[in-house]
Prior knowledge:
By secondary structure, the protein is α/β, with parallel strands linked by helices. The protein has helices spanning 2-38, 42-53, 61-77, 138-148, 166-173, 175-178, 180-186, 225-238, 289-309, 330-341, 369-383, 403-406, 422-425, 438-458; strands spanning 81-93, 99-104, 107-110, 113-115, 127-134, 152-155, 191-195, 220-223, 242-246, 250-264, 272-279, 316-322, 345-351, 359-364, 390-393, 411-417.
Amino acid sequence: MKLKSAALALIAGVTLSLSAHAQQDSLMMRKIFDEALVNGKCYDNLRYLCKQIGPRLSGSAGAQKAVAWSKKLMDSYGFDRVYLQEVMVPHWVRGEKEQGKIIVGKTEVPVALAALGGSVATPKTGITAEVIELHSLQELQSLGEDKIKGKIVFFNRPFDERFIEAGEAYGTAGDQRNAGPAAAAKYGAVAVIVRSLTSALDNYPHTGGTNYGTSPKIPAAAISTIAANKLSDLLKQNGKVKFFLKDNCQTLPNVLSYNVIGEIKGSANNNKYITVGGHLDSWDLAEGAHDDGTGVMQSVEVLRIFKTLGYKPKNNIRAVFFMNEENGHKGGLKYAEQALKDKEEHIAAIETDEGGFTPRGFSFEGANAAFLKGINQQWKKLFEPYEADRLVAGGSGTDIGPLRDSFPGINLIGFRPDSQRYFDIHHTPNDVFENVNKRELELGAATITSLIYLIDQHGLNF
Length: 462
Ligand SMILES: [Zn+2]
């Protein structure tokens, strides 16, 4: 009897302390959201980055300017430590605007297109060749060199619209852009054009990196979805259609650039780190607003909110503006390499690089059933009032990915905003500040700050 009541008291005690914890957490999250929504700075910061600096592809003057301004911004917030981390990055330039035309007999139809990042140039006079339309890389093998050699391969597999998460459609269509040019070159293709990776039917070409690996390098460009449909229709009607492509890209020598890092020291004077980051570089066609200006501005907002609220974290909290996510991943690699060298202990990293849209929750890399059950039991209800309570298994991010090998046991986490509109503007000239909503951006910043607060307080031992 005595034993039983002691056990009951113990359980009651635990329950009480848990709910007291939860109550404290819930109050702190309310403060975080209030600060982000009432006094938030990320929207104004994003406006500066987009409008005063603009495009910032690795190695460009815009990227250098963005580094200097970001450091100044972090300095102005008075974080415990602000520094630049040197990283050598590739320097690819688009050159003079590309030209593309569909040619049917004597008729020429100009199309909206953009060279893929890393593409080589065509000869000065351009390339004109017959087009062959494919829907997968596997088709190259079944058609063979006979059918491919001397032609321009046109990869035209659209997004699979059955996916609910737009990122999954992007992922499964992406091989055409990432690996298509290299694969087609091996069969003797003279150039590749790719349907833009989007569900939207419009006239924006979506650029993005392509990897040649060890294959011969042939010019590669994305064409808008309207142009892709037009080309496909003309091929069906006429059988034989030619395409003219002229681009002027160049890869220059590597350039010294930087990750920009701000840090709030942990109160326990320990060696443990929680990283939050996005990438500072962007494609050259626009302002890199959603990709990934929103991510870096949310990351620095996390530290600003903590500092403003006077929150003293247990662990060291770092905001990292990674350089070179788009065409080389050098910033992410460097960060992980240096962290290992410095014998830091990294317990969690969160990446925000899926647009500054309405937050839905987070995905946890490699999360098993027990982890998901635990985290949902304890934390889901805290996020429910903010409608950002999806805590699921899934990917994290390209920049924090290299921490995986350096720190076994680290929790890699992806911020998951609503995904439906991201690929309308992703890597297009339309990725501009005007397409970011202030409230959505701030809600995202508060959601990320809240998760980092919870991890800092309780760890992720589910
Ligand atoms: Zn990105």
